[in-house]
Amino acid sequence: MLTDCDKRWLEAIRESHRSWTPLVLAELRGVQPADLRQIAGQVLVFYNHMYVSARQLVDAVVQETVTQNGHVAEVYEYSCACAVHKLQDSLTPADGRAVMLASGYYGVDLDVMRTNADQAVRDAAQRLYEDWLAIDENTMKRNQRNGNR
Asked: According to the lineage, what is the superkingdom (predicted)?
């Protein structure tokens, strides 16, 4: 005899399996991974003892992502990608793939992202410090003209 809890659990499993149908069919039709993002977001994946849509899970993980230099877009994107990859590692292979597709980071090379993020920080720092150095040089020249040292 099934309890109410058992029935709810079986219903959740059924809904999860049903949510996979559009994704599997799209893949069988040859839809490219980049175009599967919206479909994969609707898949119900098992996380933390419950089923949740891949899109909601990705959004929650990205929202919790805190990073230094987060104001640099490349750094923020790299941090989000790392967080989603970490999430993927905690899921079943199929659920992890759905999450990666839903996130838009499927097939993205983290090493390239890290290199781009590092370069973006270096470029931003260089632009910032060049401006400061130019201000300091102008101030020193003005002080020298005025006899101040």
From this structure: Bacteria
- State which residues form the domain around 14: 4-121
CA–CA separation, 86 vs 62, rounded Å?
Answer: 11
Give the whole-angstrom CA distance, residue 34 versus residue 87.
Answer: 19
Alpha-carbon span 53 to 19, nearest angstrom: 9
Q: Is the dihedral of CA 39, 42, 44, 48 positive or negative?
A: positive
Asked if residue 149 is part of any domain, the answer here is no
> 138: helix, coil or strand?
helix
Q: pLDDT tens digits, residue range 77-112?
A: 999 999 999 999 999 999 999 999 999 999 999 999
**Predicted TM-score (pTM) of this structure:** 0.78
- The rounded distance, in Å, linking the Cα atoms of 61 and 23 is 22
Displacement of CA 113 from its chain's centroid (Å): 11
